Amino acid sequence: MWLYYTRLAWLSLKRHPLLSLLMSGAIALGIGAAMTTITINYLMSADPIPEKSDRLFYVQLDNWSPNEPYDEPNEPPDQLTYTDATALKAQAPAQLQTALAQSGGVIEPQGLGKEPFLARLRLTHNDFFTMFNSPFLYGQSWSDSADETGDRSIVLSKNANEEIFAGENSVGRTVRLEGKEFRVVGVLDEWVLKPRFYDVTTGAFNEMEDAYLPFKLKETMELPNSGNTNCWKMPEGEGFKSFLTSECVNFQFWVQLDSAQEKQEYMSFLNAYVEEQKKLGRFPRPLNNRLTDVMGWMEHENVVDDDAEVMMYLSLMFLAVCLLNTIGLLLTKFSFKTGEIALRRAVGATRMQLYQQQLVETVFIGVAGGIGGLILAALGLLGIEYLYGDQVKDLASLNLPLLGIGILLAIISSVLAGAYPTWRTCRIPPASQLKSE
């Protein structure tokens, strides 16, 4: 029976090709707009590290001014001071924890035809690579002693290694960075986090870093700040050292806590640490320490911009308008079939059978509209990538689940659009139609 309905639907579509094309086109426009914005929002808000996002916590301490909070209503700073970042790493009880900072420096590749380039640097501890599941192509991270002494070790990204060493295994070789020689201890494999959740303050969708260095080098090499630096009072004194001992925040801190008990113990440590600092004249505000997991931190920092969500809702409203147009076109199309429907009713077809027949036809229209919509969505995403470049390179793409969502949305939309015209057509008394014929 369903094969028969399919054949009838195909013949009906061929009988009125312009109307069929208009209906499929209306659905395609709505699906294309909706899927473009849904894809961007879905990938922006996706869990970047689902295997452990509920065990990684971002640390916030409220060292801000006694006269006003960092942000309303009572938000602590979104970064730490150098003093607190280094103290937590040295004193905190967690097995895996790391401070982070972004910087930059000039790398001078050796060899003819290779020009120096400004590299994006990430200052961190060796726990970083374990905590965030960084894949190594060659070698490994630096040692604990390198963290403590600020040894000039470096881990290169895959792209940087290709730029400097033509993709060869460079472990043990040297790289000249900011006029000093660094020993390569590891090379990462292809690694892209979207969003780059471990440092959303400098841009959740920025490119990954070119190289990773021991955090201690921030102090010993006086590497420049990058990203947001906020101070509620000026550093006491002049020079780089005074900045490091100031109340200026420019550093991130993450900790891995594998159980509720570990989280509770770590929070108790943070509270005790701040109480000790209060005795030294720091932290004038009431206790306001925070531990926020990955997804909570992304939500707190509004990684998915409000404008993107508004655009998604507007595109869904546009899809609704397209469905209203499709309903009108279906009413027109089905009005041409009243005689045929009346004849089928007269020879014994039930309303349910007629409803199923029209339903198959609307599904055909929905599938065609869905395919067209996905093509339009792919073109829309290409346009977004062209406009915004590498910043959305890994966001502007349709994966298999999103393709399935697009087709399903198109079918559901077409069935909803066809429900009323089909019901209305099947309710027409056959006697009146046969008499008029």
Instruction: Determine the strand fraction and express it as a percent band.
Output: 5-15%
- Mean pLDDT, all residues: 84
The biggest beta sheet is recorded as: 6 strands, mixed, barrel
For the termini, the CA-CA separation is 27 Å
Structural shape? elongated
Strand order of the largest sheet: 2-3-8-5-7-6
Uncertain stretches of 5 or more adjacent residues = none
Radius of gyration: 31 Å
Quaternary form:
single chain
By DSSP, the count of extended strands is 10
How many helical stretches? Answer: 15
Helix content range of the residues, please? 40-55%
Order of H and E elements: HHEHEEHEHEHEEEHHEHEHHHHHH
| Structural class determined from secondary elements | alpha+beta
What features would you describe in this structure?
- The structure is a single chain.
- The chain has 437 residues and is an alpha+beta fold.
- 50% of the residues lie in helices and 14% in strands.
- A 6-stranded mixed β-barrel has the order 2-3-8-5-7-6.
- A hairpin with a 2-residue loop joins strand 6 (174-177) and strand 7 (180-188).
- The radius of gyration is 31 Å and the shape is elongated.
- The two termini are 27 Å apart.
Q: Which structural traits does this protein have?
A:
10 strands; 437 residues; six-stranded mixed barrel; alpha+beta
